[in-house]
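Narrative of activities, Objective 1.

The group set out to show that a structural description can be obtained from nothing but a protein's sequence at a throughput compatible with the screening campaign. Below is one input-output pair from the validation batch, recorded exactly as produced.
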Amino acid sequence: MTTRKTNANANAKDDMMTGERESQLIEAADLLLDARRTGVPIEDLPEALQPKDMPEAYSLQDRIAEAYGEIGGWKIGAPSAEAEPLFAPMPLAWMAGDGAVVGEVRRYRGLEAEIAFLIGEDLPPRATSYSREEVVAAIASCHPAIEVIESGLRDPLKAARMSMLGDLQMHGGFVYGPAVAEWKKIDFKAEHVTIAVDGAVRVERTGSNTSGDLMRLLPWLANEGATRTGGLKAGQWVTTGSWTGVTSGDPGSVADVKFSSAGEVHLRFE
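Output recorded for this entry:
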């Protein structure tokens, strides 16, 4: 085992956040929460309220997630095989099983095909790093999943990057399919996926998770993310990033995700 390094700079910035800055991030969270709840988006946060760095973006995420109750898990991904992962909390209230009807206030109705893992054993924070083998051993099951993309920003991909990241990294829901038998035998770099909306295939790709090796994300979350998450807990979900980019549906649309070895999952927008 190796000694785990904590992100001291990030922790120091959190500790040194002034009362004024904390109030600004609370105001930013309130603006995004109102936009999400009413379905009336904002173009972007006012410049003074935009997170200045990732510690502030994560602080904003936590304030938004707190409004929705218990955390059911985490979304994590990386834009390339070399990039440091980014992660965000997923409210338990937004999670559902295969065939779920996704209602509430929906405007963006984005869809991403993903691979998710259900944690079976607690991985509490500790001084030594968890090995990849230890983290894999703590996984209860692997599932196909759809992440529903939603945002309080009119076009989150055109807003300031830190605004988008602070708004739960566009998270709006999570639907998981049946557990995959013998998932450890799957070569995810060769896995094929399609996502269809109302019967028409929108995206079809192979080995397209942008993190390169998606299994690297879980040890990173268990170790580097532990200060923020409080450690991964049995019963939490971790979903590991899009294979298909973002596609979208309409009211009443049915979405179907099919992996070649990792099963399939479906949802319908109300």
